[in-house]
Amino acid sequence: MTIEKNREGYPTLLDKFAAFYSRYVYRRIRDCWNYPICSVPGKDVVLKERYTPDNGWTFKYTGKEVKCINLASYNYLGFAESTGPCAEFAIESIYKYGVSNGATRIQYGTCEMHKELESLLTEFLGVEDAITFGMGYATNSLNIPTLIGPGCLVISDEKNHASIIVGIRVTGAVIKVFKHNNVKHLEELLQENIISGQPNQPDGQYKPWRKIFIIVEGVYSMEGSVVRLPEIIALKKKYKAYLYLDEAHCIGAMGRHGKGVIDYFDCDPKDVDIQMGTFTKSFGSAGGYIAGSKDLISYLREHSYASCHAWAMPPPVAAQIIAVLKILMGRDGTEEGRKRIDALARNTRYFRRRLRQIGVIIHGNDDSPVVPILVYLYSKIVITVRTLIENKIVTVGVGYPATPLYEGRIRICLSAAHTKEQLDYALEVIEKVADEAGLKHSRRPRDPRPVEYDDI
């Protein structure tokens, strides 16, 4: 029998480092991740208490439930609720439409809820048309290949989400990656690739690109940074490129009207060729959307893999989003939407300023509700997550492979539902952990003046 070794073009079946990491690092600290919950992920969340009798191989439940302050969920506007007008409207839709349409959008799966949702969304975003899908991840991974193909150039931010990376990898396009939020590097790549044209042409002939796409996110979920949108719009106009903007973490959470990073910078929505977003964060629901011109959306309705093959968004999921949109647009006759947008902005600025006073290193924009605290080492991720849970506060510890090995962090996601008292308590505990674990590495000058919550 012939045993093949190092066959050209094939990776090894077993990555030794990954196996070592999974067995001897991750297993021993598994208790810091995948904690089961048994409540809605509102400003508070209820954990099912568990323990491991064998160093992380298995877990057993104690039967106790622990109520904690929730700093871990993407519930930016606090709409992840089991009661209230949104939940009631979703329940009503079940009695009328059921829990599923049992088909794809293009094959008898479209109902009145989808049409109403897309009409409201189009008006909310200030675009010509919009289309919705049942899964946020698939909104990127199944629609990008519909729009991009061989002969195209894609220039992608190095911190873009996995769903974008998966989508562009299967397009057959040439992919270039620019340094995170670095507009200068982006322009250099545009210039170089426009000059060189498509590669591998016979006799060194010059062949221009069919299309050039710049793909960025509005708020980056691991960095908390906000895209430099006005500068990127200027570049896309200068070099005649298309701009694809993923607003998953900023739709509802950024801007004076909660319309995302385009609203935040007061840009013209028509300057962004393809707007993408999800309903899993600010809307407390599921699914995603793409918005833009009539021609773009008509093309996607007919050719998108997500429209032709994926199941249509369930009616109660669409109903939840419709109810939230009406609140944000003031169609419910109240100021609730405005209050939530303002509350999130106030909580974000207050929390970030207080963290800077503590002296920990945080990433991101001052108005970003995603707040990563740099702890660097795995041991410090573990002590921070465990200590916070002991004090009834839940956060997200993020390490390899989601970040580089020595750039571990604690990611906090703020919500409009959090009260000042909850934030103050969390900050008090975080400061104690920072003292014990040695997390006060920031060299920024600390402002000794008290941060007044009501004046922000």
TrEMBL record:
Reaction equation(s) it catalyzes: L-serine + hexadecanoyl-CoA + H(+) = 3-oxosphinganine + CO2 + CoA
Keyword terms, alphabetized: Acyltransferase, Pyridoxal phosphate, Transferase
One BP annotation, GO: sphingosine biosynthetic process
Record-level Gene Ontology MF annotations: pyridoxal phosphate binding; serine C-palmitoyltransferase activity
EC number: 2.3.1.50
CDD domains: KBL_like
Cofactor(s) this protein requires: pyridoxal 5'-phosphate
GO CC list: membrane; serine palmitoyltransferase complex
PROSITE patterns for the chain: AA_TRANSFER_CLASS_2
Start and end residues of each Aminotransferase class I/classII large domain: 67-430
Family: Belongs to the class-II pyridoxal-phosphate-dependent aminotransferase family.
Protein name, UniProt field: serine C-palmitoyltransferase
Organism the protein comes from: Henosepilachna vigintioctopunctata
